Amino acid sequence: MFAFHASDTRLQPLTALRAIRILFATRDTRQVFILLRAMRGRSGIRNFRRFAASPVGKTVLRERRDLLTLLEDRARLRQFPAGSVGRAYLDFMESQDLSAKALVTASEDWKTEAVEPDMALFRARMRELRDVNHVVTGYGRDRLGELCLMTFMYRQTGNLGMLMIAVMAWRQLPKLARAAVREAWRNGKKAAWLAEQDWEAILGLPLSGIRTSLRIEPPAKYRAAMASIAENQILAAMN
């Protein structure tokens, strides 16, 4: 049994609100990690224990797997078949000019916490999966896509910081965007628990098949909202 300090579970709503305001104004990724740390409460402990008790979790912890090294190896990712999760991830990262290591820098505040090595490995793995989750759920890095992914992942993890973002953004959302967020809420609940999947093996498998096996529904409302936004932008440019 692992021991945890009280500071691991204490909610910090003022810190969370400040992080959300900065995030909405600047899109500074660091604020996401500050927010999630401030509002994770006992959800982080529950998720870790669930992971550590799962077959994949036990293997990951025993083998001390390093997902970051794999996700940063673009030559290896390029060897995965077209249409695979790994190739889709690579295409996503290159199209957005992203690096998995950037998330490490953004989450550096975690390094100040004294936690068990297994917990540290679990937290790092969840961090590295952020952009993988974008790919498998179909949500982009636009503002609505990030909001939908946060909503989806709240149903998966229970971190109240994710819910706070959705609640604070809700009043500003047009009708189509609200429909997309509601859909993400439902989809996150329906899907298999992404944290306990064997992602090292999944990267080589077809993306379409993985979405089916993990019960990840197509983000139809999100796509419709984004198509409407694009159409409106085109019409505005023509006027």
Question: Describe it for me?
Answer:
This protein has helices at residues 13-26, 29-39, 43-53, 55-63, 67-72, 74-77, 85-95, 100-106, 117-128, 130-137, 143-157, 160-170, 175-190, 199-202, 207-213, 220-238. By secondary structure, the chain is mostly helical. The protein has one domain. Residues 1-7 have low confidence and may be disordered.
Number of strands: 0
Largest pleated sheet:
none
Computed CA radius of gyration, to the nearest angstrom: 18 Å
Overall pLDDT: 90
Relative helix content: 55-70%
Shape: globular
How many DSSP helices?
A: 16
Domain module tally = 1
Supply the helix-strand structural class. Answer: mainly alpha
Order of helices and strands: HHHHHHHHHHHHHHHH
End-to-end separation? 65 Å
List the uncertain runs. 1-7
Q: Beta-sheet strand percentage?
A: under 5%
